[in-house]
Fold this sequence. Notes:
Layout: E1 12-19, E2 24-31, E3 43-44, H1 47-58, H2 65-72
Antiparallel strand pairs: 1-2, 2-3
Amino acid sequence: MNAAMLSDTPRYCFFPVHDPDAGVWQVRIVIDGMEAAIGTSLVALTSDIAMTVADKLNRPLGWTRESWTAFADGRPPGGSGGVTGGARS
């Protein structure tokens, strides 16, 4: 998928991913149908802070932590598990 193929109302969420080279957590955007996540300028020093930032950004979009982590990991919302980075790092 490329930008021209993106719908006017895409399903997306914000998702923290650890960057071991920089030693920080980056908040990225995961869009349904795209293989890779889109980077942002949002960074956090700990996973707790990154998860809180993602929660706050996802809440107005209607995502619970369980649903956005499932979506970002490529699983149907409502599944078990958490943030793994999956194939969308």
